[in-house]
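Consider the tokenized backbone below.
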């Protein structure tokens, strides 16, 4: 912008966004949905994304820090710049701690309009490693002075850690094996839309962390930088992805229009921006691209990434994994990414070209469900999907089946489940989007069968407006599936979860299957105090325990779970009374008065004893008294067309969400519904 600025006068920067002539397969958002910065510097300064830190030598006693610093001289004369970098510990609140090392000061001459790259090394004694358990970070503070005057200060957060990917021993983080327990996620934030909000993103990651998720795939585009900052701070690994298509698009107006001119610049920009984040451990050049068998194009893109950062492997998500390996395109990658189709994995493990190439489930399962909906003689009804977690599209599988695949091939690095959260758009199986056919590009029979289904769906014009894939619904409420993953991904965490709920007055005497998810290895189920039997998991085969012949009678279901013969965890589900009350609980009752910090308040419909009443859908009206504001509401129902900005919304299976923010002071949020006792909650904004 420098040549166009008129010093001392008002300058107007006009930005025009054209979203009418561009397209995507899902809801990408529109407008300026990520933060934009106007960067003002002195003429001599560190370049944009101008530092690059690596740790070529790491041990428990010392770590060598290699740092490249790009310095720009935008002045009209040559300068001698003094460059000094000091390294400090950095806490989770981004506060600098003690200094741990310093780089030698450098004096460099830079010609007018030119730039230079300084490379220097320093040693950190007894380094603290960045890890998913203890994500310790450091920050490098680089200062530039010219003629004794400070012209720039630039901070670079980074971590010290080692990563190794093996074909037979999986992924090693700091020398120990870590199973990738990841989720794929689109970037929208449910009721908030696509606009970035850090507190909403932190809430999502907190929920995923509690489930046992340790990795994120940025499907299918470079993430907001705030996501990587949070991943660094909270201890997530990140598969950083560039493209959903290359030269041949999936839609007429998608990135294929830009590929030829922009792919190299965009790919380099992503790597330059993100390569100092310790959370980023794999670069991805694409997802299910139409050109995935193109050997030269695959190598070309992978080589661009390796040139800019040779310290991390490059992968690609294949929904034609057999074709990509057959033609040799995968030889250009460091890691094979398989989306769903592991049927010929044994063959490729033995292939000389790939026997030493690590493989990961870059996209798995695609199980679909609606929170709190249970169907007994079918899986789909009234545009909802049963929450017994056994429904999935033709290319997918149940979570249990994928766990079995992972157990069958223990050398796999792990998996990224589709998806962590429900997202706006793509309401499969009620989705008539023809790009679904690409999952069966090499199976004419299945493609024809799916095409007929898509035509049928188009004629019915389904009301669904958001996905059913999420382990967690659009409002951020865990579905039953959440506890299935938690039971498998957190084996040392005592937990048990019973499904379904136990309010079935129309099913008295009828068979009502009961499933139990537990991190234990066996369990005994009781109905009204009577044992229905004790069952044990077969390791690598069973990931849930089922009692499929339970005859429904109202009362209490209780499960006692065991591990290694000792009592481990319990869960209870009771038949409830009629809906009587509303209750409110917030993820945080103290927020910042900065206009963007949010509190997420969960509303539950309960009976007189405080039990959540399933299958309850009363209309709830929200209001605020004091310096607060309702930002959005939701309930997780994929068929609801109530605007997210509405201040009233029906509960969906007993739950709803209201999102609020505030100016300085205390404000009270109220929820009320006809015939139910209302509820209030006070939020303080500082």
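A designed sequence for it:
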């Amino acid at each position: 912008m420098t040549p166009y600025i008129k010093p001392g006068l008002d300058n107007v920067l006009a930005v025009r966004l054209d979203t009418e002539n561009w397209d995507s397969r899902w809801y990408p958002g529109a407008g300026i949905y990520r933060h934009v910065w106007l960067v003002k510097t002195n003429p001599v300064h560190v370049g944009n994304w101008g530092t690059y830190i690596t740790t070529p030598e790491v041990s428990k006693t010392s770590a060598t820090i290699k740092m490249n610093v790009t310095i720009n001289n935008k002045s009209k004369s040559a300068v001698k710049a003094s460059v000094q970098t000091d390294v400090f510990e950095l806490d989770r609140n981004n506060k600098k701690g003690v200094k741990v090392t310093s780089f030698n000061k450098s004096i460099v001459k830079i010609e007018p309009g030119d730039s230079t790259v300084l490379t220097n090394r320093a040693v950190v004694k007894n380094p603290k490693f960045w890890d998913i358990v203890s994500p310790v970070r450091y920050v490098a503070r680089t200062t530039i002075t010219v003629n004794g005057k400070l012209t720039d200060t630039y901070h670079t957060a980074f971590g010290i850690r080692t990563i190794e990917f093996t074909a037979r021993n999986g992924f090693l983080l700091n020398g120990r094996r870590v199973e990738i327990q990841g989720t794929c996620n689109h970037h929208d934030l449910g009721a908030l839309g696509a606009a970035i909000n850090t507190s909403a993103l932190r809430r999502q990651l907190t929920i995923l962390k509690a489930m046992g998720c340790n990795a994120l795939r940025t499907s299918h585009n470079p993430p907001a930088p705030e996501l990587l900052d949070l991943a660094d701070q909270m201890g997530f690994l990140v598969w950083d992805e560039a493209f959903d298509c290359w030269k041949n698009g999936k839609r007429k107006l998608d990135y294929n229009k830009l590929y030829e001119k922009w792919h190299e610049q965009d790919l380099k920009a992503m790597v330059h921006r993100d390569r100092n984040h310790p959370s980023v451990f794999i670069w991805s050049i694409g997802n299910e691209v139409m050109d995935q068998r193109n050997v030269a194009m695959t190598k070309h893109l992978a080589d661009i990434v390796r040139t800019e950062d040779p310290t991390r492997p490059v992968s690609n998500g294949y929904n034609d994994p057999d074709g990509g390996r057959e033609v040799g395109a995968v030889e250009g990658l460091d890691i094979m990414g398989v989306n769903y189709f592991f049927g010929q994995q044994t063959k490729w493990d033995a292939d000389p070209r790939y026997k030493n190439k690590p493989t990961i489930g870059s996209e798995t399962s695609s199980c679909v469900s609606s929170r709190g909906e249970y169907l007994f003689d079918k899986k789909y009804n009234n545009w909802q999907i049963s929450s017994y977690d056994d429904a999935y599209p033709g290319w997918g599988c149940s979570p249990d089946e994928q766990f079995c695949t992972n157990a069958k091939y223990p050398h796999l690095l792990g998996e990224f489940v589709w998806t962590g959260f429900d997202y706006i758009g793509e309401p499969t199986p009620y989705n008539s989007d023809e790009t679904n056919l690409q999952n069966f590009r090499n199976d004419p029979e299945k493609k024809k069968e799916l095409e007929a289904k898509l035509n049928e769906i188009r004629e019915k014009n389904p009301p669904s407006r958001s996905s059913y894939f999420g382990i967690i619904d659009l409002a951020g409420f865990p579905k039953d599936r959440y506890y299935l993953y938690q039971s498998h991904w957190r084996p040392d965490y005592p937990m048990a979860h019973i499904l379904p709920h136990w309010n079935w007055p129309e099913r008295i005497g009828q068979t009502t299957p009961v499933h139990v998810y537990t991190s234990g290895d066996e369990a005994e189920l009781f109905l009204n105090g009577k044992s229905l039997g004790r069952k044990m998991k077969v390791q690598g085969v069973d990931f849930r325990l089922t009692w499929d012949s339970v005859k429904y009678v109202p009362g209490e279901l209780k499960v006692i779970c065991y591990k290694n013969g000792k009592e481990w965890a319990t869960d209870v589900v009771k038949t409830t009374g009629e809906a009587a009350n509303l209750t409110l609980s917030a993820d945080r009752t103290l927020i910042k008065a900065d206009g963007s910090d949010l509190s997420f308040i969960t509303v539950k419909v309960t009976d007189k004893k405080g039990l959540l009443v399933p299958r309850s859908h009363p209309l709830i009206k929200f209001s605020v008294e004091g310096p607060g504001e309702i930002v959005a509401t939701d309930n997780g129902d994929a068929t609801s067309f109530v605007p997210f900005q509405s201040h009233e919304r029906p509960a969906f299976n007993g739950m709803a969400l209201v999102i609020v923010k505030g100016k300085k002071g205390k404000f009270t949020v109220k929820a009320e519904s006809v015939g139910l006792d209302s509820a209030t909650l006070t939020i303080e904004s500082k």
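The mean pLDDT is 96.
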